[in-house]
Amino acid sequence: MMETIAYLAPLLQPQVFGIIALGVLGGILIGALPGLTATMGVALLIPLTFGMSPVMGLNMLIGIYIGGIYGGCVSSILLRTPGTPASAATVLDGYPMAARGEAGRALGMATVASTIGGLIAAVVLATLAPQLAGIALKFGAAEYFALALFGLTIIASLSGDLLKGAISGVLGILISTVGADPIAGVMRYTFGIQGFASGFAFTPALIGLFALSEVFTQIERMAKQEPAVVLVKGRWPSRQDMRDSKGALVRGSLIGTLIGIIPGTGSGTASWISYNEARRSSKTPEKFGTGYAPGIAATESANNAVCAAALIPLLALGIPGDVVTAVLMGGLMIQGLAPGPMLFQTNPDVIVGIFGGTFLATIFMFVFGMALIPVFARILMVPRRLLTMSIVIFCYIGAFSINLNPVDLYTMVGFGVLGWGMQKFGFSQAALCIALILGPMMESNLRRGMLQTGDNILAFISGPITLFFLGLALFSLFGPVIARHLAQARIHKPN
Amino acid sequence: MKKAISLAALVAATLPGAALADFPVRPIQMIVPYAAGGSTDLTVRIVAETLERLYPGTTAVVRNQPGGGGGIGTSAAVNARSDGYTLGAGAQGPIAILPHLGGTDYSIDDVEFVGLYARSLQVMVACANAPFDDYDSFIASAAERAPQIGNSGAGGANHISAEAFAQAAGIAVESIPFGGSSEARTACIGGHIHAMVASPAEALSAVDSNQMTPLFVMEDERIDLFPETPTAVEKGVDFTWSSYKGIIAPKGIDDATLNWLRTAIADVVADPQFIEVMTEMGEFVTYEDGPAFEARVRRDGDMAHSVLDALDMLGVNN
Predict the structure, then answer these.
(1) Quick check: is B225 in a domain?
(2) pTM above the 0.95 mark?
(3) Interchain contact, B154 vs A334, CB within 8 Å
(4) B22 to chain A, minimum CA–CA distance in Å?
(5) Chain-chain contact of B189 with A319 (C-beta, under 8 angstroms)
(6) CATH number of the domain enclosing B44
(7) CA separation (Å) from A175 to A146, A165, A186?
(8) Which of A186, A366, B149, B293 could be stapled to B113 by a disulfide with Cβ–Cβ 3.0 to 4.6 Å?
(9) C-alpha torsion angle, residues B122, B124, B127, B133 (rounded to 10)
(10) How many folded domains does chain B comprise?
């Protein structure tokens, strides 16, 4: 115990304390700008950590990571532009709430939710890391396939029209097959264009799908002389919001923590699953998608919980769960520290320092987030026409800056037109987005599993984790149908 | 390309003798063909930082152009204007292997080799629950059932090295591609595959905590980090393989500028602070000048060609 306190002491040194604060603030700004992601922020600043002590350098990077994932919600809510893929789901309820003139309330809800998600996951990280890390090792091809399949069933409940939702989902899966075949390495549907060798770039596609399509819709509305008046008020979620969101917050944090531990899934998946779960268990599911606080609470608590949870397999097993933690692993190696079970014995000071830093960074995120809300929300006071044109510019900059690949601009514009058309004809953009995230995971694991088991399809319906997720998938698909059937039967009975 | 050469010639002709004294007057750009944060990216950033420190007034900017297994960024580097201000990170996959798969708009002949600054040594490791735990039991087990060897991507460097070893040793293996080396590592520690090719640095911590067991080293001689682990060569299999990190450029840079760049890389590699930071990261710092670097890449390219031929993957993307 005394040792633990001694290991935490370095966090209170002014430079360390300050550098974590600076990291979080920088991360928030990076995340809020579309096209700059937490990964880039962490990678670009790694050289700065060469001269720092391990605890100082790593906590700065973790601060950027936590701030960056949180910051993504800002442009999702205000501009319908997911700043990072992690907050694409926040668009669903955040943007309608902001469009109603309650941007402050939406950002406040997101900040509170991110903080709660982050803190719950940090507690799990600090107390149960070695015990839970084992989950990461249980996932083979069959388990990943079942998880992806379950994730895809969200489409059924998210899209009002089942047929149109299914069409969007299938389209998303087809789009995700463009690029190098994950198993054979052969190019598919690239038509000889080298820029598409890795498929459609994900963030440019998202920016087009959600942001540019909305710009088109806005321009249409302006042409019809319907200027949207946007006021900005408040910054705290109401008492009622918090009461409504209690369940969504707790479940979101736990879902985020669990998904965060599973390597290679990430905050995008977690926020969609959490959103779906909040909606499914809500007494008023029809309010989701209209600017309902629990919708924001569910996605933001989950994606920030992933941050701390992704550190669990990294520190306890030396397995990076996502791209950012892979970069963090590089940061640890530069300091001469190899993450893994041995690190807990050889460098407990670093481990405890990182645990403490994660808490500290989450608290800084809350303070800065709350303080910056009025500043961010002021963006909406820019006249609509100017704002719309600036979003277009940001769409281009964001789409290009990720890979510096000109082909990504075509991707962004193409998805913008696609998204606009889908919106116009009632197809779910969210369904397409989910399929883009989970399609590649499902395909590569299905094929890898077939390769490893000599084409034995039975391997995909064995093992407790696989069966658990397949069961969830069935429940998620047929649960609503059965419930509706029962409800109808009850209505018909009195007659 | 031709245009770029004539442009460089024109500049060289109009400014006789000025090139040496005046280079560099603008920032030097280094294109990394992978996303920020990977080991190639991090080491190029260290090279850039060292270059700026050793040559005050020089600015070196790292630019990431990921995608297409490194092909997109490498293409951008070798097709850039040949004035010495645009360089590229020369990674094994995109220069020695990818052109054989097809679909690239460059080949080894389009690359100017500036200098190699590090090699990444390779160790074959047995994963959790594998039915073998040293070289001999690995070979014996492979005779009964082809071991599943994970790699970081189909047609990537460690796919080729595992298959090349199998060819040289006369055993059969089943290559299992993953989306990147950390996915393969996760599957290995979780016991979902039998073996994989790892760098000594990433293998060391896993070996210390019994997550992996080293089988053999792909070098001529045993290495310091794993003194107990044999090489394939001493087991009678004529096979060595290592990945590398170097600096490349487009063809057609004038001699004075190219000499400046080559000397600069040599100075960077000799810098004690550079060596220290790189070694901490688990890189094996070593210097090879342009011609030696080129010879190494061509040797790898030939081996990759024969492996891909056997796998029926030659020119699949043409």
Answers:
(1) no
(2) no
(3) no
(4) 28
(5) yes
(6) 3.40.190.150
(7) 21, 15, 16
(8) B293
(9) -140
(10) 2
